[in-house]
Structure formats: structure tokens, C-alpha cells
Amino acid sequence: MGSGTAAEAAAAGFRHVTAAEGDAASLAAQAAATLDPRAGPLLLAVGRGYSAALAKALRGHGFSVRRRVVYAAHPADSLPGPALAALRAGEIRAALFFSPRSASVIMALLRQAGVAETVDQVAALALSARIATALAGLSWQEIRATPTPEPSALLALLGPAPHSAARA
């Protein structure tokens, strides 16, 4: 898990929480460095379609892994009306992407709605290089990826907030 998930786990009452770098490889490496495979199986609570690579990597380090699906994410059927209107009006300057799957879904929905060409004025900001690669199917104004897979790094790609008129 990354620092965001670690913070949520700590807030939920877990007492022994450590963060990896936010990807499967770093999490498997951290587990191998800090846990003893002989101590018992690891529970890997995942979303449907996720973390098969992590389970495989952990097993490669000698761990017994019990992978259990605890949630399922379902893609939207269409883009919301306000999002379509904002795209058509050129009001969206950046879009944030947290997974390759969400990037693929959004690009399909943009094409389905006939607004894929509007992204030439939108910066695509990705949580990782892998996600940035998934975004290559459309002509975004630019595609940038964070140096580390942390939500704060993704927000930093947005840059400073635009200055607004002084409030009375």
C-alpha cells in the first residue's frame, strides 16, 4: 500500500501500519524484507480483477497467500452531463488518473460520447508511468506521470491554484 492507504488503515484502528511505495513490486519486496513466510499465511483483501501480480510475487518470496475479493468496481455507462458540457465548453484543463483501468474506461466513454477530440486542450495527469502509457490512445494536450505513486504527487502535478479575485 502507499502512504494514503496506510493513513486510512491507521485511522481505521490498525496499530502496526507501514507504507510501501504504492505498487505491487515494492509491497512484495517490503513484505519479504520484514515478514517471515513461516509465521503463517498473508490475507490479501483485493478488488475483483486486482492484485493477482502481487499474490504471485508474494508466493515467489515463499509466502502462503489467501487472496480474497472484498469489493468490485464497475465502470460507468456514460459520462455525466455536466462533464460533457464542461468538455465541450473547453472548461476542463486537467484530468487525474489513478489506474490504467480507469484511464481505459474514461477514454472509451469519451469516444462513445463523441468528445474524444476535446482532450487536445486537457492535460492528462497519471499516478504512474504505467497509467500514462494507458492514456496514449488519445491526443491529450500532454500526458505527465508522477515520480512516485502517491496521491499528493499527483495533486502536485496540477501546480498552484489559479489566483482568484480578492474577496470582499
UniProtKB/TrEMBL annotation:
<dbReference type="InterPro" id="IPR003754">
    <property type="entry name" value="4pyrrol_synth_uPrphyn_synth"/>
</dbReference>
<dbReference type="InterPro" id="IPR036108">
    <property type="entry name" value="4pyrrol_syn_uPrphyn_synt_sf"/>
</dbReference>
<dbReference type="Pfam" id="PF02602">
    <property type="entry name" value="HEM4"/>
</dbReference>
<dbReference type="GO" id="GO:0033014">
    <property type="term" value="P:tetrapyrrole biosynthetic process"/>
</dbReference>
<feature type="domain" description="Tetrapyrrole biosynthesis uroporphyrinogen III synthase">
    <location>
        <begin position="1"/>
        <end position="155"/>
    </location>
</feature>
<dbReference type="GO" id="GO:0004852">
    <property type="term" value="F:uroporphyrinogen-III synthase activity"/>
</dbReference>
<protein>
    <submittedName>
        <fullName>Uroporphyrinogen-III synthase</fullName>
    </submittedName>
</protein>
